[in-house]
Design goal:
Two copies of one chain form a homodimer. By secondary structure, chain A is α+β, with helices and mostly antiparallel strands. Chain A is built from seven helices and five strands, in the order ααβααβαβααββ. In chain A, strands 1-2-4-3 form a four-stranded antiparallel β-sheet, with helices on both faces. In chain A, helix 2 crosses helix 5, helix 3 runs antiparallel to helix 4 and helix 3 runs antiparallel to helix 7. The longest helix of chain A has 26 residues. Chains A and B meet through helix 1, helix 2, strand 1, helix 3 and helix 5 of A and helix 1, helix 2, strand 1, helix 3 and helix 5 of B. Strand 1 of chain A pairs parallel with strand 5 of chain B.
Chain lengths: ~200, ~200
């Protein structure tokens, strides 16, 4: 973990196909989750729970859920919203086994008995971003997904035996990238920055 | 920005009182926002807009809104949820001018015409966490707040002249810390980690 934060953050991007021979030792997962739990949360409630899935059966079930959603309207919706290159990458990941090739899926959950749900997202996604950056700092690729947990919540709940108070929020696919990833494509910050009030250019 | 990511992430914590003599040059804000926009977002929609507030009038208005919410029930609710030390720090920040001493407030907004609102939180808070880490890497303290933007949305909308499609999501107070900050207090990740399914200990 010697890369500077700036190097890491400027190169982070989604990885949707993984090297099947790449191992993810428990020790790395522990480092990653330790960094995740240092994120801020509302009232320092730390309302996160992490379910680390390696089981091929569960990972296959996740893939089947995602692929079904893709076939049943998901692909068409997304094709209208993204570039052709992103669509192809998403299709490879969701419908052609790319995400299923990740040896680990970390499902980040909200313990809604520790903080009111209205403050849940602001307490879970900063930790999730820490998790993604920590994984990148160890050379792993990740893909942050929310469709699995938000659109197929009951199925995920069943597979992971989540109690009623535990809400699945995000599924992070994690492993060694199958191929070198290009740089992330982002619009310059300046185009989305305003001085004092909206519409006054930076 | 030479600190390793690990050093930064493990020491990040809320700062609620700032050095009034500490300047925040535009160039630093540009670096911080450039890192913010490299976070992931749903369908790479990049639905963020950043309003950078330096105006003393607007900052004072934010402080007044926060202080009123604190007096009108907020303090009592929070006192039941947090440790005495955190309560004192929050009271100093919210009701006694600590947060108002921040020379900059960055209001992070969601452009709900670029992504459906159900995917908004997962597209805004990773960028917000990047923003907090980037600020820390330059030596700034920050405090991520959501009460201002979620509980007083219409007032914030008016002050920042936000169009209907632009939703204020988070207010980040930013400046040089008034005093050296102690380490963040976090429960070990292991206590919130599960193997394969919820309840099976890591």
């Amino acid at each position: 973990m010697t890369a500077t934060f700036e190097q890491l953050a400027l190169h982070q991007r989604a990885c949707r196909r993984f090297d099947p021979s790449g191992a993810v030792p428990d020790a790395d997962i522990e480092k990653i989750l330790t960094i995740a739990v240092h994120a801020p949360s509302a009232e320092n409630s730390q309302p996160w729970e992490f379910v680390v899935v390696r089981s091929p059966d569960t990972r296959h079930a996740f893939a089947a859920i995602n692929a079904a959603r893709w076939r049943n309207g998901g692909a068409a919706l997304i094709q209208r919203a993204v570039t052709p290159a992103t669509f192809e990458d998403m299709q490879d990941g969701i419908a052609q086994g790319g995400l299923e090739s990740a040896p680990v899926v970390i499902v980040v959950c909200l313990a809604s008995d520790r903080i009111d749900e209205q403050w849940g997202a602001s307490s879970i996604y900063p930790a999730t971003q820490n998790l993604l950056l920590a994984a990148a700092s160890l050379g792993y690729g990740t893909c942050l997904t929310t469709g699995l947990t938000q659109r197929s919540r009951d199925q995920v709940r069943g597979l992971l035996r989540l109690p009623a108070a535990i809400q699945p929020i995000a599924g992070v696919f994690l492993g060694r990238p199958a191929r070198k990833l290009g740089p992330p494509k982002r619009q310059p910050a300046r185009e989305h920055s305003h001085r004092e009030f909206f519409g006054q250019p930076w």
